[in-house]
Amino acid sequence: MNQEPSSSLGAIARLIQELNKLPGIGLKSAQRLAYHILRAPEEQPELLADAILSVKKETRLCSVCFNVTEADPCRICCNDRRDRTQVCIVEQPQDILALEHTGIYDGLYHVLHGAISPTEGIGANDIRITELLNRLQNGSVSEVILATNTNLEGEHTALYLKKVILPLGIRVTRLARGLPFGTELEYADDVTLTRAIEGRQEL
Amino acid sequence: MSKPRNYQIEAIIIKKIKLGEADRILTFYTPNLGKIQGVAKGVRRPRSKMAGHLELLTHSTVSLARGRNLDTVTGSQTIDSFLPLKSDLELTAYALYAIELINQFTADSVENHPLFQLLLETMHHLCRGSNSEVVLRSFELHLLELVGYRPQLGRCISCRLPLQPVTSYFSPTAGGILCPGCSNSQSSARRISVNAIKVFRWLQGSDLNAAEKLKIDQELSRELEGIMRGYLRYLLEREVKSTAWLDMLKG
Fold first, then answer.
1. B106: nearest Cα among B7, B224, B24, B15
2. CA of A158: which chain B residue's CA is closest?
3. B3: which DSSP letter?
4. What is the ipTM of this complex?
5. Pick the CATH number of A82-177 from 3.40.1360.10, 2.60.40.10, 3.40.50.11270, 3.40.50.410
6. Strand pairing partners for B122?
7. Domain ranges of chain B
8. Does A152 touch chain B if contact means CB atoms closer than 8 Å?
9. Measured between CB atoms, which of A160, A187, A189 is closest to B89?
10. B90, B160, B194, B210: least surrounded by Cβ within 10 Å?
11. Where are the domains of chain A?
């Protein structure tokens, strides 16, 4: 890669260098994108540049659920038609997008912005658990749905949340863990299969 | 003779780091190759066939293909997922602490079969969930012995005289116990009770099965933990990260 300071590079090289910094974009992809932008009609790069700038300028975290939002509180927290007795706990804002896409859940959310990972030095105070507990104090929530990832850190976080939320007299549930749709049974690991058998349901 | 391109190992997964969009660099502790690393491609995607077999704290058979820098994981099969341990908050925290110590005290590719065996047995004992604090102390003492830092608990490390049954001093810098007479020369030494010395000695000479049955009161348990923690911190020249979490869970 060219190590010159970006200001001394040509416009194309600068664009390639910046695109190259994005996750999953290698040098070749960056070149392809740069030349695509170069050939695109005038308004397209303007829209892109504007969208990129406003995502940084106009978004913040919702003061209630800590989702990324433009208005505070966010649209979900403000929506009166949503069920205010359920709060679904997720690790990342992207998880909300995935859950909202299903259209099946109409409760509220809470974003932790991470998971407990003791060996990396990330404890309960490093993610938004205190904020969650404060939020649960007012008594309007009757069920907390733990939707943290099903890896070790996510499970560990879920176990910890169960321990601190149950004393508040709130029902704590966990998303079902079992076989993903469209996969083959023979490749499933023991933990997944054990949980799938334990969590089997009447057809 | 050149090494074969593909090889298979038995391993406990002791560390994972995210790499790129969907990959991970995993650290394996193995019986015959010691600590090694490998890249597992695509394991962060939901449909990865390998992900569940390559989670932290899993005992697996792993197939690897040699690469230029890091070897690539081509397949894996769980031997034991230590599920009882993963379903319990405290036990998971203990186990994470154990693998952090293994990772800190070992260098890459140095075979230490007894250490692997110790880690495996510790995981099995933690799964049973009884007397885990003492099991952890026993694990630490045996780990230190296997990596060459066995604390000297029989004689005073300064004057070499047998220790009398009185409160003495544990010196991390000297790696053992000082009698009250010799303790003045070492400022970093901390008090150790007669009972704590006895328990440490006994644990040093016993296996995990015996340790699991040893009942000690809370005060003594805290003393042992404090002394051990000081020694480990001195040897590693830093805090063991997961201890902060253990303390938080104990409240």
1. B15
2. B89
3. P
4. 0.86
5. 3.40.1360.10
6. none
7. 6-81, 84-250
8. yes
9. A160
10. B160
11. 6-57, 82-177
Q: Which residue is listed with tokens 């170069």?
A: A38
In angstroms, the separation between the Cα of residue A165 and the nearest Cα of chain B is: 14
Please give the structure tokens belonging to residue B27: 């650290």
B244 at A interface, C-beta within 8 A: yes
* Architecture of the B84-250 domain: Up-down Bundle (1.20)
Helix (H, G, I), strand (E, B) or coil at B173: coil
Distance from CA of A49 to the nearest CA of B (A): 24
Tell me which residues of chain A, numbers 42 to 101, contact chain B at a CB-CB cutoff of 8 Å: none
Of A116, A151, A194, the CB nearest to B55: A151
Chain B residues with CB under 8 Å of A188 CB are: 52
* Cα B189 to Cα B183: distance, rounded to the nearest angstrom: 7
- Inter-chain touch B47–A119, beta carbons under 8 Å: no
pTM of the model: 0.87
Could you report the per-residue pLDDT of B53-103, keeping only the tens digit for each? Answer: 999 999 999 999 999 889 999 999 999 999 999 999 999 999 999 999 999
- What kind of architecture, by CATH, is found in domain A6-57? Orthogonal Bundle (1.10)
Asked if domains A6-57 and A82-177 share a fold, the reply is: no
Q: Which two tokens stand for residue A14?
A: 């600068």
Cis peptide before A73 (omega within 30 of 0): yes
Largest CA distance in chain B: 65
Gap between the Cα atoms of A122 and A148, Å rounded: 15
For B129-188, write each residue's pLDDT tens digit.
Answer: 999 999 999 999 999 999 999 999 999 998 999 999 999 999 999 999 999 988 877 778
Residue identified by tokens 């090494």 is: B3
As a CATH number, domain B6-81 is 2.40.50.140
- Chain-chain contact of B89 with A156 (C-beta, under 8 angstroms): yes
Residue with tokens 């608990």: B153
Q: Is A159 on the interface with B (CB under 8 A)?
A: yes
